[in-house]
Amino acid sequence: MADKKFKRYTVTAALPYANGPVHIGHLAGVYVPADIYVRYLRSINEDVAFVCGSDEHGVAITLRAKKDNKTPQEIVNKYHYLIKDSFEKFGIDFDIYSRTSAPIHHETSSDIFKSMYERGLFEEKVSMQYYDEANEHFLADRYIVGTCPTCSFDGAYGDQCERCGSTLSPSELINPKSALSGFKPIQKETKHWFLPMDKYEPWLKEWILEGHKEWKTNVYGQCKSWLDNGLMPRAMTRDLDWGVKVPVKGAEGKVLYVWFDAPIGYISATKEWAARIGKDWEPYWKDETTKLVHFIGKDNIVFHCIIFPTILKAEGGFILPDNVPANEFLNLEGNKISTSKNWAVWLHEYLEELPGKEDVLRYVLCVNAPETKDNDFTWKDFQTRNNSELVAILGNFVNRAVVLTNKYYGGVVPARGELQKIDQEVIDKLELAPSKIAKAIENYKFRDAMAEFMDVARIGNKYLADCEPWKLIKETPDRVATIMNIAMQLVANLAVLGEPFLPNTANKLARILNFEKLKWASAGNIELLKSGHKINQPELLFEKIEDELIEKQIAKLEATKKDNEMENTPVIPSKPEITFDDFMKMDIRIGTILEASAVPKSKKLLKLKVDTGIDQRTVLSGIAQYYKPDEIVGQQVSILVNLASRNIMGEESQGMILMAEDKMGNLKFVMPSDEVNSGSTIS
How much is the pTM? Predict the structure, then answer.
């Protein structure tokens, strides 16, 4: 059972960004395992605060607002309520689902920053930061896009590559450009407040590498990699106008870094919850007898295991996480889930299109959870799991037991007689089940826990199949009474053990059994239903899912695949408006490539000799990963010939070749449909 050195539990689930709905990847990685864990803790009578809320700050929100031509507040309002409603309907049972735009959150974040500032825990630095001249705006990390130095993905952000998952800084990007204007940004001086992460490195190494070797391998390994590479001071403020204002004189036009204020959202949500029910919030965050557990996805490991704990350690008044059981990613039909390309199964749509099947999705996402490696969700597997496991194993056993009890005994649980060896074997296995399931849950092995739960139903199915009470009812009715009593005890235990995993199903079982759901301590008991107890009529726990429903969902995804590439690419808004006179200044002509060769020490550039009709000139173009030199000689291209020349890697480039991205993000030449004379102008 749970570790009794702890008096209470604070369990957090990653704050979803309020710039889009929740999808099955979020559920499998964070919310289903967190909900299972909390429901189990409640069942063993632990004091738990289960907190979450919408993360409503950060550049992702402002980018979505610009794209949709709305204010950031309009965006977060829309998605906060959609996400909150989806969680409630799906049965994720938070004690509170708050939001970081709430006044209590702004106040809490400001107070913590101010406390640290007044004690001199930040380093004030003037540094060079990317600046968009066209928009007169400093660029936060997510406003900068470019080529990932790790995997060469052209749509990497300044803080992270969403293809390979690498954590980046804007200075590491190759060919960075502004996500606002599309232009290359300049660097300009700005002042920020940095948390000196390097000073906390020795403590972090001892706390994590020595003190938390029990953490999941993927979590421990990622932390070790970061610590082995050395930590650097990290800015805790940003030049933005959306977020928690920096509560320091001289910080006008700046807000707190989203990864400073967002995790504090757990604290502010706990405050809000405690005030609502008349409790003291502080023990849940400041008492060493509280166990703090963060449920997150693997892309948030560094923030929850290194940055946020460093903030809490520096502030000095808060407990640190005992565990951070992060999961890997869930893919969809063989491809990475992509929110920007609509390659996802959205929770709110699932609830509308498959009503009453909340527990089916919970089950499939749990048994297929990406606990140790990325896993794949397919609609065919979803159908198979439902039909072959939920219907054929769990549903079948419960239905047979309830139907036979109603048929033979008018729905009254019969008294048990003398036990045979097969009966005792079933009872012995049942008695072990609660501790096996509990151990798996407490070790964050939810797939194993679900398997142990389903084994109870398998035991019941096999028991009835081996005993065949329908053949014995006339000749040995006393024997059948014993069999059916034990079968109904198994059903009652499934109602108790199933609560963390399949809460709607557990409620339905309680209704069928006509009894109040019991706590975990009662599980394993072979006397949950007293002889003479009257149960209700049977009802199906699960229904078979037909091919038609699955084919409809697959067709929906296939339609998305045709319209969208499978990668998450940044949204690049249109560039600033120009006049007709500006356009007429550009001299764009058709040229012909005469020679092409690789540029030494560059993986991206090709050196081209181009006949422009007015001369032959050298142009360096970043197309090496899309074209081989020998295959483009003779290719007609569009070239901007009056662009000022510039020196690139020791070569003078005299113009620019016009390119466009196809649906898969590959660069293609902008060229005439038929061959024309070199030097023909484009107007």
Answer: 0.80
